[in-house]
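Quick one:
INPUT:
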């Protein structure tokens, strides 16, 4: 039991090229941090040869797609290549922040 309430964490790991490991920590928590719901994720990258651990608690989703790392954070979709102990050539793919919710009644 945490100070904030019940918390469970599930760890998912995915092996990536060049000895990288993508880790997703999926949290289920009552009294989650501000800006988080009762279910939220954090991510980290580990590079075994260099001992590098890069933590990305703000990432909401991440995966390895077409030879690059792709993730979403703060309303943006970004990508980068995996270098030796660091991310290379980070690129903004799309910024969704200007989009606004529009209720559309069925049928579409």
């Amino acid at each position: 039991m945490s100070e904030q309430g019940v918390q469970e964490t599930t760890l998912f790991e995915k092996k990536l090229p060049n000895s990288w490991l993508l880790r997703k920590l999926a949290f289920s928590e009552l009294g989650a941090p501000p800006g988080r719901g009762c279910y939220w994720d954090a991510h980290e990258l580990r590079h075994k040869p260099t001992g590098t651990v890069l933590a990305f608690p703000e990432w909401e989703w991440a995966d390895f797609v077409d030879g690059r790392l792709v993730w979403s954070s703060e309303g943006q979709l970004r990508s980068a290549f995996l270098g030796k102990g660091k991310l290379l050539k980070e690129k903004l793919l799309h910024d969704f922040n200007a989009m606004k919710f529009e209720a559309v009644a069925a049928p579409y």
